[in-house]
Design brief:
Elements lengths: L23 H10 L1 H11 L11 H23 L11 H15 L5 H31 L57
Length: 198
């Protein structure tokens, strides 16, 4: 069975998604062939919510068939199957059950909307409700994994390169700068001195 994620506050499947997952076409055929039995299955899954005044699955199925199935059968027999009007009365029993289902799963809506939905297409609404129960049951059966919250803290990093202290004192120049020496002009060689006249 395919896993469908439940939608918070709404039905997880559409009203006309009868052949979708979970359940598929088999569930759709079951509901359309025996609506009263499907209604009893739904009431059984809502045990403890007083969803139906008939009580358990068997009582709900019989009540629904008495209100909807039997009049429909009689009308089909009397009219040759042309006017099965009796099936339109199923909403009288089913409305409170849909309301209980919405309350159990915190699905938005109201009783008037439930009544109109069931009066217009009770089989589609029943398939939708059965699918919702299956989806919620699957989600509840999944193991809950609790994860510790991740706390982000500011990281304090030491500087990667600390300023290095000088290992040796600055070296003094080994030789003091030499003072410029000025040599006195040398006397020309004697041989080059011109003779003086007296």
């Amino acid at each position: 069975m395919a896993m469908v994620t439940p939608v918070q506050g709404h039905f997880s499947t559409g009203l006309f998604d009868a052949c979708g997952q979970p359940g598929g076409c088999g569930q759709c055929c079951y509901v359309f062939c025996c609506l009263s039995c499907a209604y009893g299955d739904m009431v059984e899954k809502l045990a403890g919510t007083n969803a139906c005044c008939a009580g358990n699955k068997c009582g709900a199925c019989c009540l629904h068939w008495t209100v909807a199935g039997l009049p429909s059968l009689v009308s089909c027999l009397l009219t040759g199957g042309l006017i099965p009007f009796g099936g339109m009365f199923g909403w009288c029993v089913h409305t409170s059950t849909r309301t209980h289902l919405r309350a159990k799963y915190a699905i938005a809506g109201d009783g008037c909307n439930d009544c109109l939905t069931l009066a217009c297409c009770e089989p589609c609404a029943t398939v939708q409700e059965l699918k919702e129960q299956d989806i919620r049951a699957q989600a509840a059966a999944q193991p809950v994994v609790m994860m510790a919250p991740v706390v982000m803290q500011a990281a304090h990093y030491a500087p990667q390169y600390a300023p290095q202290q000088p290992q040796h004192a600055p070296q003094q120049p080994q030789h003091a700068p030499q003072q410029a020496q000025y040599a006195e002009p040398m006397a020309p060689p004697v041989s080059q001195v011109p003779p003086t006249k007296l």
